[in-house]
Amino acid sequence: MIKYFCFLFLLFFSTVSTINAMDRYAELDRLIENENFFNGKKERRLDSLKSEILERQVKGKEWECYQLYKKVADEYATYVFDSAMFYFRGAIDLAYRMNHQKAIAQCQSSFGHLLVSVGYYKEAIDTLNKVSVDQLPEGERQDYFSYKVRAYYDLADYINDDFYSPVYREIAEGYVDSVLEYRMPNSVQPLITKALRFLAKWQPDSAAYYYTMAGRMPLSMHEQAVVHSCLGYICIRQGKDALGKEHLIKSTMADIKTATKEAISLMVLADFLMEHGEIERAYEYIQKAKEDAAFFGSKQRMLQVAEIFPVIEVARLLQEEKKRQKAVRYIWIVSALVIVVLIFLLFVYRQLFNLRKIWMVIQQNNKELKVLNVRLKEANKIKERYIGHFFNMGSLFVGKLEDVSKSLNTLLVSNDPHKLKAILKTINPKKERDELFHNFDEVFLKLFPSFIQEVNELVEAKNNYVLRSGQLLNTELRILALIRLGVEDNETMSQVLGVSINTIYTYKTKARNKSALSAELFFERLKAIKSDR
Asked: Alpha carbon of 330 to those of 3, 204, 318, 337, 342: distances in Å?
């Protein structure tokens, strides 16, 4: 019994975990679909900063212009590499032009970090070595040394040999101590640097400990992405797949929200999903990672994606091939079933020849049908007489119409205009049409009692429809009523209302122009007016 309950618990836990994972995927997919919203925010922020640069590119405002160049470069640092390079160089040029040593040091430090992130290790180290550390503010010295730590660790991993890599790791170790020496209170950078040191030595538990400690501090969205990315990598390497996947999803979501294009979390997640058989989703994510890498413009990122993309694409093609083979097998099975059915039908057909008695029954039925045919003929004669009677009555009615026509002709020949006028006065088309419109208005307003009020809500207040006393609808409202009933053809409206097609078009345009809504939205809401239920 205990084993049974344990099995049910594990089954329930597994089901819940699967549902939660699908929910996280759905949340990530929604963010990917709406990434243009976050990219748009980034672009608007950049456009605003660029506009400010143009306003301050005058003599005497070099410092303000430098600060704006630096902000734009920092914004582009994770978004578009070429643009980040351009604005960093512009900021450095301005700093040298002003001979502002602190600005030169700050800008070169940040520029070195950019070069590290895209894999320009030699250029990054050369740039960082030019920085005068004494000119950096105290809060930025730890960041500067952390950039050097990452530069040498990444260079060691890139070379990955037994001769140069140990040397670069030893240099990185020395700079870790510098980061700790200049660490600032409540700063997350020392924790991340410690974690990186343990990660480089592949001491995953210690690295995860410091990354977890960093995750408990107040972090920016980009710092959260970095921490979750590293934790996800560690967990997956340790076989903690569910936790690692959760960290990678969180990291990717943070990257999308910050419009970060140089991230690798989505690429790692795609590789992980491919290894675990989720080929279609892995293919979608690696496609997105490929687009981001191309957008950012980093050769290193594109090379990293290029290593994984063919593997996932081949796996996807193999999966499609398996589906095709499965479909072919089903086709063969169905074909075999069809052949069996045809054989069975042939057998049945041959058996029909043995059913001679049925033929006798059919002959007897034919005799009975002949009798029924005779009766049907009699019934047809009766119908013919009734139809003739109907036509006779119709002829009489037509004859009466002919008599009336003759009387009118006689009246016209006798040239008695007074009697003719008396007859014509009894025929008043305008009155008949007005009565027709009045009946239409009454019936329509019984169906849609709040029609006028709801139309007034669609137009601007100054253009509200005000009817005369005793008037139910005017021509313009009547046209809108026809549209609500589904009559939208101008020619049909013209025939119903007795006005020209141009008049119909003019009234429709006039009604549409009374509203602040677009024409499409105005008529869409007009058709959505509900009847009285």
From this structure: 40, 49, 18, 11, 18
